[in-house]
Amino acid sequence: MKKRITIRDIIVLQAVVMVFSITSVVAKFASAQDFLSPGFILFYGLEILVLGIYAILWQQVIKRFDISIAYANKAMVLLWGLLWSVLIFSEKVTAKKLLGVLIVIAGVVILNLPEKETDGKEER
Asked: Is residue 1 part of a domain?
């Protein structure tokens, strides 16, 4: 029998997805640098470091979740990316971007809802 997934588990999963989304931020900073300049190498190295940390954390996450649930939650990187684009790069949020993120969030929430068995017991 699988362990029941708690809100804490979902928060941990989202924290790991957030770490993954930071790679996009670092990559954007690297793209603003001249190729093979010290700044480029610094940001590129930082991106590899963040990806390494993410890989270790992801291995821990997939121990707790069905792989289909974990990968579906990875789509939340769109929300984190939108948040970083506004907070760090002062980009504008358009209605299309917001609608897309809301659709993804709705899908992830629906996927994370517990399933009902025919005998009335909840199952994940």
From this structure: no
Distance CA 72, CA 103 (A): 13
Domain extent at residue 79: 7-123
CA distances from 56 to 49, 61, 64, 81, 82 (A): 11, 9, 14, 21, 24
pTM of the predicted model as reported, rounded to 2 decimal places:
0.73
In the chain, the number of structural domains is 1
How far apart, in whole angstroms, are the C-alpha atoms of residue 58 and residue 47? 16
Distance CA 79, CA 8 (A): 19
pLDDT of residue 21: 92
User: Can you tell me the distance from the alpha carbon of 20 to that of 14, in angstroms, rounded to the nearest whole number?
Assistant: 10
Question: Is it the case that residue 73 has pLDDT exceeding 90?
Answer: no
Length of the chain: 124
DSSP three-state, residue 118: coil
Q: In the Cβ-directed half-sphere of 64, how many Cα atoms lie within 13 Å?
A: 17
In contact, 52 and 25? CB cutoff 8 Å: no
